[in-house]
Amino acid sequence: MTKIAVLGAGSWGTALANTMAQNQQEVLLWSHRSEQAAEINQQHRNERYLPGQTLATNLQATADMAAAVAGADGVLMVVPTKAVRSVGQQLADCLAELQQPVYLAHATKGLEQKTHYRISQMLTEVVPADYRRSLAVISGPSHAEDVIRGDLTAVSIGADDPAAAKLFQAALATDRFRPYTNSDLLGSELAGALKNIIALGSGMLVGLGYGANAQAALLTRGLVEMRHVGQEMGAQPETFLGLAGIGDLIVTGMSPNSRNYRAGRAIGQGQYLATVQADMGMVIEGVNTVQAVADYAQANHLELPITAALQRVLFEGEPIEQAITDLMTRPLKAED
Question: What is the separation, in whole angstroms, between the first and last Cα of the chain?
Fold first, then answer.
């Protein structure tokens, strides 16, 4: 039996840990709050993040990271982008004390501000090579709220090392949850982060009252921007046509379970960004990713009109309707 430590007891971390528990894996879920760990252990619930859902009785949680990772074959980190370095440093300290290398994976979809680093790049800086056998990312069309209630789900596990991908694939595979593997860690991470930008825009269109035509146009042209950024950074173009790319883009850009879509919809309905962020109570990864990718595009002379429009709306106060008009009246061109 494989032992996996899952770091982060938010909705997605809990859903992934619960899937492993249902697959009869030995899994320990780490939370930075002892009361949350107690709720999971005693009541088999995580009401803050997955209200009304009952968790597997064999899923155990702890607020002691060293206890979570001791003896683990793999560690799966599922925390917001802004917490990756601090949690990664805690993990590094634990592994150093235990003198224990692990297969390390994450399921976070964002880019770091200022550095534009992907999650694996951040982890490479904080977790020494002696303690991480390799890195992997779990991505694809997979809302925690649907996974926890047993909806049919397929994801992609991107890793440069096939052994890492296969370890997490085996730990997660059930008759309701089907993980595939791919060899493009870079592209899988980028796709997972970039689709949040487009999901924000999709929600804004719905909030303004636009229909399926507008959404389809935005998602399709958004995928083009995602691919352009990926190619600029060295990703495999075909990754953006798989589960980590178009699959995740569809579900995130159209489902009310997507916090990025919901945030965009609220903004489209006239709410202020700060109010939306406060009301959500969870991190909206796409907001910071918009700024990070807009900065990257400017520095590298990359034309990303949708991302640039969203950056002006979110951070410069441009009216959404003006941004839409600007996009729709750009010089005519061939499809790329």
Answer: 48
In the chain, the largest separation of any two C-alpha atoms, in whole Å, equals 61
CB 197 within 8 A of CB 307: yes
- Cβ neighbour number for residue 213 with a 10 Å cutoff: 9
Identify the CA nearest to 306 among candidates 192, 193, 196, 198: 198
Token pair of 293 as six digits: 């990718």
**Cβ atoms of residues 239 and 230 within 8 Å:** yes
Q: Give per-residue pLDDT as tens, 161-187.
A: 999 999 999 999 999 999 999 999 999
At residue 299, what are phi and psi to the nearest 5 degrees? -70, -25
**pLDDT over 90 (residue 46):** yes
Convert the pLDDT of each residue in 82-100 to its tens digit: 999 999 999 999 999 999 9
Token readout for 222 is 């958004």
Judge whether 195 counts as a catalytic residue.
yes
> Which sign does the torsion angle of CA 61, 64, 68, 70 carry?
negative
Catalytic residue among 82, 109, 195, 333: 195
Q: How many CB atoms lie within 10 A of CB 134?
A: 20
What is the bridge-based pairing of β-strands 26-30 and 102-106?
unpaired
Residues 67 and 75: their CA atoms lie apart, in Å, by 12
pLDDT tens digit sequence for 189-244: 999 999 999 999 999 999 999 999 999 999 999 999 999 999 999 999 999 999 99
Q: Using CB atoms within 10 A of its CB, is residue 90 exposed (0-12), middle (13-18) or buried (19+)?
A: middle
Q: Which of 81, 136, 149 is nearest to 103 (CA)?
A: 136
Has residue 1 got a pLDDT over 80? Answer: no
Least confident segment among 116-125, 279-288, 292-301: 279-288
Instruction: Return all residues near 91 (Cβ < 8 A) that are at least 6 apart.
Output: 7, 65, 69, 75, 77, 127
